[in-house]
Amino acid sequence: MNNSKRIADDLRALISEGGLVDDQLPTENSLMAKYRASRYAVRKATEELQKQGIIYKVQGGGTFVNKAYKKKTLSHAVGLVTAGDLAENGLLNTISTAFFKKGYTLFTVETHNSPQSEYESLRSFYDLNADAVLIEPSQSAVNTQSLKLLGEMQVNKIFTFFLFSSYPSVSAPLFSLTDADSEAAVTSEVIQMGHKRLLGIFQVDDMRSVLRMNGFIRAYQQHPEVALNSYMETYQSSESLRAVIERVRMHFIDVDKELRPTAIVVHDDRMALQVMSMLQRAGIRVPEDVSIVGFGDSIQSNTVTPTLATVSFDKPAFVSHLVQQTLLAISGEKPVSKQFPAYLIKRKSLSRYPYRVD
User: Fold this and answer.
1) Given this model, what pLDDT does residue 72 score?
2) What value, to the nearest 5°, has the Cα angle with vertex 245 and ends 259 and 262?
3) What is the DSSP string of 132-153?
4) 3-class DSSP assignment, residue 59
5) Helix or strand or coil: residue 16?
6) Is residue 77 a contact partner of residue 130, using CB atoms and an 8 Å limit?
7) Of 101, 165, 308, 343, which has the highest C-beta tally within 10 A?
8) Cis before residue 115, ω within 30 degrees of 0?
9) How far are the Cα atoms of 100, 151, 219, 355 from residue 266, in angstroms, in the given order?
10) Mean pLDDT of 146-156
11) How far, in Å, are 201, 283, 340, 354 from residue 344 at the CA level?
12) CB 276 within 8 A of CB 292
C-alpha cells in the first residue's frame, strides 16, 4: 500500500470514529511527522478525501471534516436556539407541535440573551448534525461570537434560519416583523390620542429594538411639539435591570406633573411590565397618570392589572410559514424570507390624554 492511500484510509477511519479535536485535521507538518511521509504523500491523501466530500479546506484557516459525511446522531430533528421571546409570547409549544405533525422533533435551548450560551447551543446542534437550526439571536446588534460557526454550518448543509432578527453578515432566511414601521405607527397613534410628552425605552444591543427605536424617532420627529418634549432611555443587556429602572423612575420622581411623560413606548413587553410595576409601587397610576405600550404580545401582558397594551402579529401564519420553509430547505428547495406586519392591541394600560373613562 502506498503512503498516500495509507494516510487517506487512516484519516478516514479517524474521522468516522470522531477522533479529531473540533473536527479539524492536523497541519501538513504534523501529518508528515505522524506518518513519516513526504509533503507530496500527505497532500495527495487530503486531496483524495476532499474529492470524496469528506473534508474541506478553508483558505488560511485549516482543513475540516464535512459534517454531511459523518453519521447523523439526530434523525428528523430541528434545533431551536431562542433568546427567550418565543417562550414569552407562547410560540414554543405551537412550533414544536407543528413540526411534530410533520414527523420532526424540535429540540429547544433558551440562551437568556447570552452570546456564549448561543454559541454553545449552536455547537451542540452542529455536532449532532441536526437537519436544520432556527435561531432567535442573542444581542444581535453586537454579537459576533457565533458568526464563524454559522458559516461552517452552512458549508456542511445544516440549514439555518433566523427568527425576528439576524446577523447581517450571515446569509440565511429571516422570518421577522415590521419592527420599525409598526413602532412608528404605534407612536403616531399614541400622539393622536393627545400625548405630547413621550418616553421611549430601547435596548441598543438588539437589532429588533434598534429598528423599533428608529420607528419611534421617525414618528415623533414628524411632530415638533412632541419632539421637543420627548426623551429616550437606552440600555444594553449587560446593564442591571435595577439601574435601568432607576433611570426611568427619575423621569417621574420629584418632577412636576406638567413635565412628566404622559406615555411610555417600550421595545418589548418584558421591560414594559417592569416599568409598570415600578410606577405602581411609586404611586403613579397607569393609565390615569401615564400610559404604557409594550411590544410582542407576551402571555403575561394580558394577565396583569391593568392589562398591557402591546404590539402583536399573526402567530399562526408565522408558525405555518416557518415550518413550511424549514421543511422545503431540508427537502432541497430554496426557502423564502418573509416579514409579517405587526399591529397595536389596545388594552387598559393605554388611554387618551388627558385621561378620561370612555
Assistant:
1) 47
2) 30
3) EEEE--SSTTT--TTHHHHHHH
4) coil
5) helix
6) yes
7) 308
8) no
9) 35, 34, 14, 20
10) 87
11) 17, 27, 14, 20
12) yes
pLDDT in tens, 76-129: 889 999 988 888 888 988 999 999 999 999 989 888 888 888 988 898 888 778
Cell numbers given for 308:
398591557
The residue count of the chain comes to: 358
Residue 64: is its pLDDT beyond 80? yes
User: What's the pLDDT at 67?
Assistant: 67
Residue pointed to by grid coordinates 404622559: 262
- Residue range(s) defining the domain that contains residue 56: 3-71
pLDDT of residue 68: 61
CATH of the domain at 44: 1.10.10.10
Cβ atoms < 10 Å from Cβ of 343: 14
Q: Write a three-state SS string for 216-249.
A: HHHHHHCCHHHHCCCEEEEECCCCCHHHHHHHHH
The burial of 193, by beta-carbon neighbours within 10 Å (0-12 exposed, 13-18 middle, 19 or more buried), is given as: middle
Residue 349 near residue 306, CB atoms below 8 Å = yes
Kindly state the cell numbers that stand for 14: 479517524
CA dist 170 and 145 (Å) reads 12
Total structural domains in the chain? 3
Same structural domain for residues 60 and 134? Answer: no
